[in-house]
Amino acid sequence: SLSRTESSMLRMWMEGQGTIQISDRMNIKAKTVSSHKGNIKRKIKTHNKQVIYHVVRLTDNVTNGIFVNMR
């Protein structure tokens, strides 16, 4: 599973923010952002950004659906 940092970074990445923007926002080096992106790709087992985007959307839909049903 993704770490909290990786999850935050993934959201920013999928919103279209670049490595420099993410590094500025998270107050970390661009190289660190690149390393985290590599870890995310490895954990999701794809280097295709479109696949990653769809995984994030599906996960959000499932998670939000579960959260709503638990109320």
Plain-language structure description:
It is a single chain. With 71 residues, the protein is an all-alpha fold. The protein has a single domain (4-69), classed as Winged helix-like DNA-binding domain superfamily/Winged helix DNA-binding domain (Arc Repressor Mutant, subunit A). It contains four helices and no strands.
N-to-C series of helices and strands: HHHH
What is the molecular shape? globular
Q: State the end-to-end CA separation.
A: 25 Å
List the domain count as a whole number: 1
CATH class category: Mainly Alpha
What is the alpha-carbon Rg in Å?
A: 13 Å
Helical amount: over 70%
Number of DSSP strand runs: 0
Fourth-tier CATH superfamily name: Winged helix-like DNA-binding domain superfamily/Winged helix DNA-binding domain
CATH structural fold name: Arc Repressor Mutant, subunit A
Decide which structural class fits the backbone: mainly alpha
% residues in beta strands: under 5%
Number of helices: 4
Shape-level CATH architecture:
Orthogonal Bundle
Which whole number gives the mean pLDDT? 84
Model regions low in confidence, pLDDT < 50 over at least 5 residues: 66-71
The biggest beta sheet, please? none
